[in-house]
Design brief:
The structure holds 2 protein chains of 2 kinds.
Chain A (H helix, E strand, L loop, with lengths): L20 H16 L5 E2 L13 H10 L5 E6 L6 H13 L4 E2 L8 E5 L12 E5 L13 H10 L3 H14 L10 E3 L3 E3 L9 H4 L5 E6 L4 E5 L5 E3 L32 E5 L5 E5 L2 H19 L1
Parallel strand pairs in A: 2-3, 2-4, 4-5, 5-8
Antiparallel strand pairs in A: 1-9, 6-7, 6-10, 8-9, 11-12
Helix pairs in contact in A: 1-2
Chain B lengths: L15 H16 L5 E2 L10 H10 L5 E3 L7 H7 L2 E2 L7 E5 L21 E5 L2 E11 L7 E6 L3 H10 L8 E5 L3 E5 L4 E4 L4 E2 L2
Parallel strand pairs in B: 2-3, 2-4, 4-5, 5-8
Antiparallel strand pairs in B: 1-9, 6-7, 6-10, 8-9, 10-11
Classes of the chains: A alpha/beta, B alpha/beta.
């Protein structure tokens, strides 16, 4: 987004939350149906937003339809509050939703819009997580026709998707899906959980918070209601496994800043060619660091 | 130049900020089936206002509403700008909970289960009366909620309509101030042991 962009001066031209009330009402109706049919991709008329499709317009439309003046919003991109997508979306919501507070602290937020990560800190039932989705349909890799995919979803027929996973195991001894891992919700629909790593898939299962997914370009809304089963597709003899952060000695790698051994780690190469690992969730890392600093200050007194 | 509205809205129900709050409460009701939501006190000044708020929040010209028991007055019909439809075809059905349904609502199709109707039922009192035991998505183990003024015929019909997931109907129950929602995935038993599974 252009940093000098300003909304037109005439305030009558834009309502709170940028979208008009008819657009919000349509999104809201579809959110309710998405909650009632867990994992089903509810079609909706995705609006043009003043940013490119693929930059989180689906998540943004959900957020703008949900948000009110009593909300505190957090926007994350790949775990970070400071990366360009998160900064732009947060700035846009601040411009169009006067009175809405924003925060970086997960526990303070009532509404969290995220791209590619679910926060490390366990969400509560008072929070809502909105995930931005590029490709909502996990069956697209095995069936090009949407009409046929809709029937397959309705019948709960995922045999071809399971065949694809099986072929992966035959060829590579491993299911090669690193993110967007197909996950079955409440024993029926299989959804694309957006490009979250496998590490975050278990957080969908029996989550206390409502999780909403918005695909702007593909015009779909779907949901994982709170306290709902979410099972990654797997086989009886080959279990689902998350990313492995153990080093050559078999020890769990830790974050080089805060020392966390329970978080999802990003890998960097330092200037002298050494691999370093750091928490992907920057708020989790910062909060751990500040707790450590205050504990160290207490001890030194 | 600022344009003054021709007439001031008579009720807060029609204000976007009020509808936003009402929607969040309705969404909470659907996300946590059986959990009681007390809708905004500022709009409870008139009888039937809760129904008006629910309809104003959820319906407009893009959907259809059926009113077999004539619960929506003419003034509200004109304010809602929605379309009347028979209960068999409507997306939203407003009905009395103490009267057995004599229609079959739309259940959606295998490809488009979201076309299943939302039934908005007026009951006498939520929080007192016959205890309903609920299980399903959105409920950690089970949820017990009392409700009076809901004839068992509704629950029997509901279990019939919701027999083949993903097809089915979703329900909103309301009294003068409170709302609960029952998505099609919720399984309901009456406390005495008689079951209306799904």
């Amino acid at each position: 987004m252009n940093p000098y962009y300003e909304l037109p001066q005439d305030e009558a031209g834009y309502s709170f939350g940028f979208l008009d009330e008819y657009a919000k009402r349509e999104v809201r109706r579809n959110i309710l149906k998405a909650i009632c049919i867990p994992g089903y991709q509810t079609p909706y008329a995705s609006r043009e937003m003043p940013m490119g499709r693929g930059f989180g317009t689906g998540g943004l439309q959900l957020t703008l339809s949900l948000v009110g003046r009593s909300d505190t919003l957090k926007v994350i991109d790949q775990g970070s509050d400071d990366s360009v997508n998160a900064v732009n979306l947060r700035h846009f919501i601040e411009l169009t939703c006067p009175g809405v507070d924003t925060t970086e602290r997960t526990q303070e937020a009532t509404l969290i819009q995220s791209r590619h990560r679910i926060p490390e800190r366990r969400l509560t039932s008072a929070q809502i997580l909105v995930l931005q989705v590029p490709y909502p349909d996990p069956l697209v890799v095995v069936e090009p026709s949407e009409a046929r995919r809709k029937i397959m979803h309705g019948e709960g027929d995922y045999s071809r998707l399971l065949t694809k996973l099986y072929e992966d195991i035959v060829r590579f001894d491993e299911i090669t899906i690193s993110h967007r891992y197909p996950t079955r919700i409440n024993g029926h629909y299989v959804l694309d959980p957006s490009p979250i790593p496998r590490f975050d898939i278990p957080k969908l299962n029996q989550s206390p918070a409502l999780i909403l997914f918005g695909a702007g370009r593909e015009k779909k809304i779907y949901a994982v209601p709170p306290y709902t089963n979410a099972e990654p597709l797997a086989f009886d003899d080959i279990a689902f496994r998350t990313e492995d952060f153990t080093d050559e000695q078999g020890l769990r790698r830790s974050c080089h800043r805060c020392g966390a051994t329970d978080s999802f780690l990003d890998e960097f190469t330092s200037n002298d060619g050494v691999r370093i690992y750091q928490c992907s969730d920057s708020d989790y890392c910062n909060q751990r660091l500040s707790t450590q600093h205050s504990a160290a200050n207490e001890a030194s007194r | 130049m600022k344009i003054e509205p021709i007439c001031k809205p008579q009720s807060a129900v029609w204000e976007p900020a009020v509808q936003q709050k009402a929607f969040r409460q309705l969404m909470n009701a659907f996300a946590f089936p059986g959990s009681l939501e007390t809708l905004l006190p500022e709009v409870q000044e008139r009888e039937n206002n809760l129904l008006r708020l629910i309809l104003a929040t959820l319906t407009d010209g893009a959907v259809t509403v059926a009113d077999p028991h004539h619960m929506i007055d003419d003034h509200d019909w004109s304010k809602l700008e929605t379309n009347r439809e028979t209960p068999e075809k409507a997306r939203f059905i407003v009905a009395r909970g103490d009267t057995a349904p004599i229609f079959s609502p739309a259940l959606g199709s295998l490809e488009c289960p979201e076309m299943g109707a939302t039934v908005i039922l007026n009951v006498t009192y939520i929080g007192r009366g016959e205890a309903l035991v609920m299980r399903g998505p959105g409920i950690q183990s089970e949820k017990v909620i009392a409700c009076s003024g809901l004839t068992p015929a509704w629950l029997n019909k509901r279990s019939e309509w919701n027999g083949a997931f993903p097809l089915g109907v979703d329900m909103i129950l309301f009294d003068t101030a409170r709302v609960i929602a029952i998505p099609r995935t919720t399984r309901i038993k009456i406390k005495e042991g008689q079951s209306w599974d799904m």
